[in-house]
Amino acid sequence: MTNAPSQKLTKEKSRLEAVIDRLDTGMLLSILAVVIGLIIEYLFEFIPKTDPTLLSITHKVGGGIVTLGVSGELIIEYFHGKQETKLREINDAIIGANTERVAELNLEAEKERLARVNIEQRLVRWTIRRKLDQNETDGVQEQLKQFAGQRFGITHAATDDAATSEPLQFAMQLRGILQGAGWVEERIPSVRRVGNGVLVECNSDDMDTAVPLARALASVGIQAMASGLATRQIPPIRIHVGLI
Q1: In angstroms, rounded to a whole number, what is the distance separating the alpha carbons of residues 154 and 173?
Q2: How many angstroms separate the CA atoms of 201 and 222, rounded?
Q3: Do 5 and 20 touch, CB atoms closer than 8 A?
Q4: Cα–Cα distance measured from residue 147 to residue 183, given in angstroms and rounded to the nearest whole number
Q5: How is residue 196 annotated by DSSP?
Q6: Beta bridge partner(s), residue 241
Q7: Are 181 and 145 contacting, i.e. CB atoms less than 8 angstroms apart?
Q8: How far is CA 209 from CA 55, 99, 133, in A?
Q9: CA geometry: angle 29, 30, 32, nearest 5 deg
Q10: Among residues 48, 57, 171, 179, which is most buried (max CB within 10 A)?
Q11: Which of 77, 107, 127 is a domain's end point?
Q12: Same domain, yes or no: 218 and 142
């Protein structure tokens, strides 16, 4: 994951800014030198009866100072431009790193939001009733098709209102899912069981089928567990849908 602009970029930016500040100071000094040189070169021309020798000297000295000042301006301007180019590149790199970091943070936030929404939707759905959507149904069936032909029976916990019983409704959906995967139902008598989730009971030699069923349900958030029995039963797998 990309971090905020590295310390190396930040330090390099500070260094370049300090260099540019010094070059700006040098530019001001060069301009000042040109002004002083011009004053020295032409001041005595406005003073009557100035010794020609002195005028010659002041022209040479002032001209030299002007030449140094102009040369300094050109040299400083050259290096100033190079440093500003480097500074722009550093700023672009920092902006790019920040933009990438912001994009990553936005992506992480969106993933977290979607995950939170998904959890909230499942919690609401499971608090009211267990019901798998089509994608979840297809996923469970795909995991169980390899056991097509497996015989099973299914019962559900009794509730006061049989017509709207959540265990009954989920047992009916689970029955359809298993039949869609090629499993064969055998009717078994209802039993009164107290407990939550889905219990998959099986003969000891059918654990290789019961465990994948429990795992398939767990993969879509349904509380389920497999349990082997010491005594043999028919059908070999019995599914008991308890309360939420």
Answers
A1: 11
A2: 16
A3: no
A4: 7
A5: B
A6: 156, 198
A7: yes
A8: 113, 51, 23
A9: 65
A10: 171
A11: 127
A12: yes
Q: Which two tokens stand for residue 6?
A: 């590295």
Residue 138, domain CATH:
3.30.70.2390
Say whether both 113 and 13 belong to one domain: yes
In the numeric block, the tokens 């008991």 are attached to 240
Q: Is 213 in the same domain as 194? A: yes
Predicted local confidence at residue 192, as pLDDT: 58
Query: Torsions phi, psi of 46, nearest 5?
Result: -90, 5
**Does residue 143 contact residue 216 with C-beta atoms inside 8 Å?**
yes
- What pLDDT does 215 receive? 94
Give the number of other CB atoms < 10 A from CB of residue 217.
26
Helices (H) and strands (E) in the chain, counts: 5, 5
**Is the preceding peptide bond at 167 cis, omega within 30 degrees of 0?**
no
| 42 Cβ neighbours under 8 A, 6+ residues apart | 62
Structure tokens at 188: 């078994």
Q: Are residues 143 and 51 in the same domain?
A: no
Residues of the chain under the 50 pLDDT cut: 1-2, 126
CB 58 within 8 A of CB 40: yes
Task: Give the residue carrying structure tokens 């009954």.
Answer: 168
Cα(114)–Cα(110) distance, integer angstroms? 6
Same domain, 85 and 195: no
